Amino acid sequence: xxxxxxxxxxxxxxxxxxxxxxxxxxxxxxxxxxxxxxxxxxxxxxxxxxxxxxxxxxxxxxxxxxxxxxxxxxxxxxxxxxxxxxxxxxxxxxxxxxxxxxxxxxxxxxxxxxxxxxxxxxxxxxxxxxxxxxxxxxxxxxxxxxxxxxxxxxxxxxxxxxxxxxxxxxxxxxxxxxxxxxxxxxxxxxxxxxxxxxxxxxxxxxxxxxxxxxxxxx
Length: 218
Hints:
Blueprint: E1 2-3, E2 6-7, H1 10-31, H2 38-65, H3 67-73, H4 78-108, H5 111-146, H6 149-160, H7 166-178, H8 182-190, H9 194-216
Antiparallel strand pairs: 1-2
Helix pairs in contact: 1-2, 1-5, 1-7, 2-4, 2-6, 4-5, 7-9
């Protein structure tokens, strides 16, 4: 989503809200699962695994398509870009640990394993909050100055193609729209193909409502 000759980077802020919201909610939800309740643990484990995979994909797109361009063109901001890379690495280590812990807890619903997982997600949430705030305040203006509209569009395309499952792709759209303002919602929906807009109107909203009730009922 861009206007004029410079990229409109606000869409990334809207997407960031999804990751921060869900990472904030999940530790308490995981800790709220009764010891041995594998049905509930499996639901949350799948949600958390999808979230971590999406965040990994989001960061990989930045690593591949943004940081190299800025290092080449925005020499005054080299230290900032390297700091972003370091933050990705630190967060990536936490995400990798979450990926190891999640399926085990999802199968056992062990309270001890759940507490370990929740603590790791809570730590990742804190690191993520600092990273996203710095990225939005400092990096997005640099992107707007040094990436072309076409280059920024490729970042968006990479993100849109990160979820292969059509149902989960629709749910992620719902996650984006949940905290979006009316203007932001119109902007996002306007970028979608007409069949997707119709699908969202017919089944997407209800599907996302039911999904969030399932995830957050704990």
